[in-house]
Structures are given as C-alpha cells and as structure tokens.
Write a structure and sequence with these properties.
Helix 3 packs across helix 8. By secondary structure, the protein is mainly α. The chain is about 65% helix and about 0% strand. The chain has eleven helices and no strands. The radius of gyration is 20 Å and the shape is elongated. The protein has a domain of about 150 residues: Orthogonal Bundle (Tetracycline Repressor, domain 2), CATH 1.10.357.
C-alpha cells in the first residue's frame, strides 16, 4: 500500500513542485487553472517544435498568458518541461481507482485508456523531441520519473496483489517484470518510433510477462548462491 501512496504523491507532484511561495505583499491569488493551460501548451509546442526549438514565448503565446506569468511559475524551459511531462502522463492513469478484474492480465489491460491515433502520435513526438533536455540531469531525471515511475508503482502493486491471491508463485520476479514493461515502452517509442498501443501491450503481456511470472526459473534466494 505504501507504493500506491507514493504513486498518488506523484499525482499531486505538479502542485507541490510548481507552487509559488506565499506572497509577502497583498495581491491577487494565483490562478491554478492557468497552470494546466500552460502545461498543455508546453506539450503541444514540444510535439511540434521539440525541446530545442521550443521557447517560453511560444508557450506563453499558445496558452494566451503573459511571459511573466510563465516565468513566475517556472524559472526555466527545462523546469517547465519537467512538470509538463509529469502532467502529460498522469492523464493516462486513474491512480485513485486501480482496476480489479480478478486477473493480472485483465488489470494490466484495463490500465490503458482508449486513445485516439492523434493523441498517441503526439506523445511519441514529445518523447522523440526531448533532445538536449536530457542533458539537464537535475530536471531530466524528474521528467523521466514523471513518465515511468507511476506505471512502475502501479504495475508492481497489481502484480503483488496477483501473487497474494495465488495467481503467481511467491518468488515471481516482479521487479524484472516491471522493468520489462517500461523498457519496452521506451524502446518502442524512442527507438522504433511506434506507438505503445493495446495490441502491442497485449502481445507483451501474453508472450513475455505472464509466462515469466508463472514460471520463474530461479527463486530469489538461489540467485545469491
């Protein structure tokens, strides 16, 4: 359960990370509804122009916000992109309502929301266009974590739940299974430049994940011998 609490904290990360310090002088309260508009604009610009072609002016214009408004929330382009990546990914998971279909296969497939071809293509263009953003380690790590860590934590919870109901052996290697999912998602999108769609995900689950979990070759204690 601690994992799910940690995942839920990712969902609130946006407001925690970008919240401004209390104003020392009286003034209008910050309009948090504008944050989402700016983050969505950042994702749109990333998909169209890549990180290296993106400017804060472009984001402000797309969001119909002043440049000063954007800079009050994010002091740099890399900081903005970090939070935009987290914001983009959280819309793909309903972290407060994990599926419970009775089988791990059903639960994993239920995590994927039906999405249009345009949305899948946009996400691919965003990931493929990160460019020099990845050279900002202080932001790149958080950005990548915002994309993949929620999936890892949710998958881990679903797999532990499946082990608890006797669907898989207690020594099934859940951590490796979680890494396989995120690694294949990265390879599929960034290297092969193909969408991580339900058809591909189903093949991954049926052909690799479930057989590996059902028939672990080595118990964890044996690996240390």
């Amino acid at each position: 359960m601690s994992e799910i609490k940690r995942v839920k904290s990712v969902r609130s990360k946006l407001s925690d990370d970008v919240a401004e310090k209390p104003a020392r002088t009286l003034g209008r309260k910050r309009d948090h509804t504008r944050d989402a508009k700016i983050l969505e604009a950042a994702i749109d610009i990333l998909a169209e122009a890549s990180f290296d072609g993106m400017t804060m002016d472009m984001v402000a214009a797309r969001a119909k916000a002043g440049k000063a408004t954007v800079y009050r929330r994010w002091s740099s382009k890399a900081e903005l992109v970090r939070d935009a990546l987290t914001w983009m990914n959280r819309n793909h998971l309903e972290l407060d309502r994990l599926p419970d279909t009775g089988t791990l296969r059903g639960d994993l497939l239920a995590l994927l929301k039906p999405q249009s071809i345009e949305e899948e293509e946009r996400k691919f263009r965003v990931l493929a266009g990160l460019g020099s953003f990845l050279q900002h380690p202080e932001f790149a790590e958080a950005g990548k974590a915002g994309i993949f860590e929620p999936w890892v934590a949710v998958n881990r919870e679903l797999m532990h739940r499946a082990v608890g109901r006797g669907e898989f052996p207690a020594h099934a290697d859940i951590e490796i299974a979680c890494q396989v999912i995120t690694s294949m998602a990265s390879f599929r999108g960034l290297i092969q430049r193909k969408p991580f769609d339900k058809r591909f995900y189903t093949a991954l689950i049926d052909g690799i994940l479930l057989p590996a979990l059902k028939n672990p070759q080595t118990a964890p204690n044996d690996m240390d011998r």
